[in-house]
Amino acid sequence: MISLNRRTVLRAGLGVGVVAAASAVAGYEVLGSSSTPASWHPPAPVRAAAVDKRKLLVIEMAGGSDGLSMTVPYADSRYRELRRRTAIAADKVHVIDDKLGLHPNLPKLAAAGVTVVPGVGTAKPDLSHFEMLHRWQTGDPEGRLRTETGFLGRLCDHLGDPSAPAVGVALGVGSSPALACERVATLSVDAGNDGLFPVFEDENIRGAWLAAQRAMAHPDRLDTPLLATARAGSAAALRFSDVAATLSPAAAGYPDSDLGIQLRLAARLLADDSHGLRIVHVPMGADFDTHTGHTDKYAELMTDLDNALAAFRQDLAARGLTDRVLIAAYSEFGRRVPDNDSGGLDHGAAGTALLLGPTNPGVAGEMPSLRALDADGNLRATVDMTEFYATLAESWFGVPATDVLPGAPRPLPGVVAV
Prior knowledge:
By secondary structure, the chain is of the alpha/beta class.
């Protein structure tokens, strides 16, 4: 098992200095031809709001995002030896410190400041998407507990009011195991329809349709347990649709992508304080499973992520939520370190997670060694997924990690700016 009392630090002291305006971005810059960092000046962190005012947005990058492309170990010659087809040149990255730099297509993320967590995973990884997504969604690092609740759902149970229309919302099609809970309401909604039930051009037809839905959702003592559950679900969805109809207007400036549409609705939901919502879960529709043609595919994914997050953070600022919303992004696993003959990367183990918002920019945790790979050529985890989750639970929400996670994981120190 990974030691939970090993030293974890934020590296924020080394990087590059300010250069000409054409290449400088708020404390980061693209390396010059020498590829030698000098000094780095991270943007001043935003101090977090009071604990009871805080909210969380979680982005799930399903498919296995390559952490070594998102946060490039540009100073390590071993990286270029193992990635002969897919390595990113050192003079293209946005420097974070003397070891790591962000992907070239993440300039806005670099400008705003981000906390990166390399080497996130488990001591006993599995190369199956399904299995590792299950572990991340339930907060079960070894897949042995098979709990019926999800990590985010357990957080919602601690944070929320059972009378609230929804304490947690997933912006995707189908239920989200991550939000499965016991005592409060959580929902999955279609971001493309702004969380509303279908809109009809004829208001009379819409009224009749909604009346029928409300009648079917009404409790009935003669129901079987299965029908009672279905009715309760419909009633919750109707309540949330009523809430969604009262949200503040959507902001402009988002990319016309699935992620842009999801984050545009997320900002409106998080801005509403009257209905008890605390957590929004965003399962990205993009495919990070880059077995072939990794370089071009990943560049497109990073462009979408960069543009959507920049628009979302600008929207949060306009709504006065900069100090209240923490953004966390993870993938079920990373990619294998050596690239394959198709210019791609196969399934790996440890990956890289991101934290944005009221955090101290830099690198949290320890970068895995490229010289001590496992038998499959994968990175060994240096930060357990439960440590990452403990940071969300305990450091951000003030919920003891032991209440929502197995074992006794410790949060990463110094991440939240207080």
